[in-house]
Amino acid sequence: TSLICPISIYFVMDCLPLLCTFAVCSAVISQSLDRKRFVVEGAVRPYGDGQYEYMHPRPGALHVSELTSIAVREGDTVIPDNLDSLFNVTGEKSRQVKGRTVLARDNKTVVFYADQPFALEENVSVKFGPGLRVRRSERRKKEHEAGCYEWSFWIRTEYGSASVQTILPFDYLDEKNEQEAIELGSIPMNRYRTLPTWAAKWRPSPEGEKAALDPKNKENKAIRDGELYYFGVGGNYGEHIGQSVITTREGDLVWWVKASAGAGMLGATQNGRLALWDQRPNDGAMAVYEVNSTYQVVDRHQMGHGYPLDYHNAFFDEEGNTILTGKTKVNGVLHNVVHVLDASTNVLLEWRSIDDFIDDADPILPGEADNGDVYHINNAERTPDGNLIISLRTCNLVLLISGKTGRILWRMGGRTSDFTFIGEDMDPPFFGQHDARQMANGNIIMYDNGRRWDIGGMRPSRVLELKLDLEKMTATRVWSFTHPSKLSSMCCGGIQIVDNGKGRPQTVLIGWGNGGPFFTEVTHEDRPRIVREFEGLAAHQPLLHHWEGSSTERPRLLLCSDANMQAVEGSRSTVGLQDWTIHFSFNGVTGISKWRLYVGNDSDVSLQRPLIERTKTAFEEIITLQELVDSMAAKNVTPTGDSNATFTDLYVRVVPVKRGGELLRPSKALKVPMAVSSPSAQPVPCSCYQPDIGRREHMDRPKSGAGSAVVDMAAVNECAELCMTSDTCETFFFFEDTGECELDETRDKKRGGLHSLKGVISGRRNCLEDMR
Hints:
Layout: E1 7-12, E2 19-24, E3 54-56, E4 70-73, E5 77-78, E6 87-91, E7 95-97, E8 99-103, E9 109-114, E10 123-128, E11 133-137, E12 142-145, E13 149-154, H1 164-167, H2 174-184, E14 203-204, H3 206-213, H4 215-219, E15 229-233, E16 243-248, E17 253-258, E18 264-268, E19 274-278, E20 287-291, E21 297-301, E22 309-316, E23 322-330, E24 333-341, E25 347-352, H5 353-356, E26 377-382, E27 388-392, E28 397-401, E29 408-412, E30 420-422, E31 434-438, E32 444-448, E33 462-469, E34 474-482, E35 494-498, E36 507-511, E37 519-523, E38 530-535, E39 543-545, E40 556-560, H6 574-579, E41 581-585, E42 592-600, E43 612-615, E44 621-624, H7 625-634, E45 647-658, E46 669-675, E47 678-679, E48 689-695, E49 710-711, H8 713-725, E50 731-735, E51 740-744, E52 754-764, H9 765-771
Parallel strand pairs: 30-34, 46-49
Antiparallel strand pairs: 1-2, 3-4, 4-9, 5-11, 6-7, 6-10, 8-9, 10-13, 11-12, 14-38, 15-16, 15-39, 16-17, 18-19, 19-20, 20-21, 22-23, 23-24, 24-25, 26-27, 27-28, 28-29, 31-32, 32-33, 33-34, 35-36, 36-37, 37-38, 40-41, 41-44, 42-43, 42-45, 45-46, 46-47, 48-52, 50-51, 50-52
């Protein structure tokens, strides 16, 4: 199988902290680490007069959350006796603080939780010990009792969160995306109707078309291996906000979803789940959700200590811990927070920029904090030596944080860098970077934007790889890739090193942010060449990973009259049959090899003998009513037993077939009103009807049992007509399970409040008016 290590997915809307990093390492690096490149800490105890490996909050810490826990880690395995007597906590205002003490999942960190939040602006004193007993050696069963220690910290004033609007320096309107759609021209995805017509679309770029013809790429089976799936997220403006996709490595769509504004997908976890950013109706803020292979939510993650997520990071390490990034605003400056949380949501480690960025150690000079978002974290993940690497875009800084103590081990880039940089075009070495990570060989690789939205152009964006020498504190450029077009991205972007398996060449997957193609895959060699490239989706951080998706829903099946762009109302000719199309797909399901189509004269369509069997060629299959009628004639199938009937209702169902012959769940029956040899229905403008799209609030709407077994496009037409004749309706929502039609007076221009929701068909009044 292919090996991917490390993988980091990183969905960020960077000029607004709206991205996330997800990472997985699927192999344990067993070789000894080169100390010239890695920081390998032994037993370190910098806290409590040399007694403790980690303490939180730090002694003397300021602006601490009133919801903080208090944690102490000696460094060795704790003997869990009398833990409740370890902490004596008092507050200036809270007085004696009652709470509970737990041993975290690492069996090393003891954590105190106060029963009530601390009072704002109070000084909190902690007396720890005696009584903490640890086992120094499992082999010798040697025990040690740590000594006592006292310290204090200050609780913050009331937290004032920074809104997206105060951080985002610009705004994008729908017209930008409409123009992009025009520039893409006629591509097969434009005919899809089981997806919203405004769903992201892509195609091979000119560079991708050239790569497809390259004999080296054609002959190299390894690079064209199809067992990995691509996970991508939309950009931070217009129609692409909240859109996430899974495609094959060759760019064929597998799964599409629209979530809340700013939401998106981070990728696949080690346990075979997807990680998603979203805000569900019962949540007051964004959270990280894990969904299983049927896309059902099975877990949820948020920051500890009441800090809001900053929408950049979700890294799942091999110890079962989750690494998240958050934010806290102090005196108008947005500071960053990193948490390592165990499976019980105990905070094992907290790093805050406000604790370390003080005076000369602050990478931002006085007077540079005008816009508030002066650090802007955009990823935090494990390194092979067990530490944490952190990227801070606005101050052009990459940090290595001790995975044991939470202290800074080295700084790279910006005005407080510890390194001397060697190589061409290394002044500055990187600028506005994203997705910095440490490779298995110790090199640091990142997406170097080369510019920021608030600074302007400096140089083209590139992937940059640096070789470290921690003895000489040098970082030498050893590899880079700049796009042939010299594109420059002012925000977002990311990379992934893809190990394609033994004997297969390594490749690099690149997401260019808002300034370039959807994604590019290049060879990781001295003279890199493009293997594949797609354009059309304003996407961010890429990921290739194994995936097997299924569904608890039914395939989507629709009847339309506008996909061929020729339908004429009242047409009864053979040309009319050619204009009408049946569309079917099964969103999120992998491994489908073919489709079987069945017809009947009532909604209980028999699935004994298929009328048509078709090899799956794309995400959505399309057949015309002419093809349907011709197939019925060829097999002597009549829609009704009455030869004198002029009109009849034909019903169609489809069944997907997986490789190996497994039959999946059939679709509902699609009602097709027919005259003899022609459609009798009114035109169905599917380009104005968005399937499986409702409002986020509709997710709480109770379902009514089994629901309707029929897809009736005439009922959708009636709902649309009600909206058209209403004086106030702007958007309609048709619920297939009940036949209910909801008319809405609002028109969400950016569709930020819209959300994928099975069984809902929605549309806008203005689109219908334009069609007429």
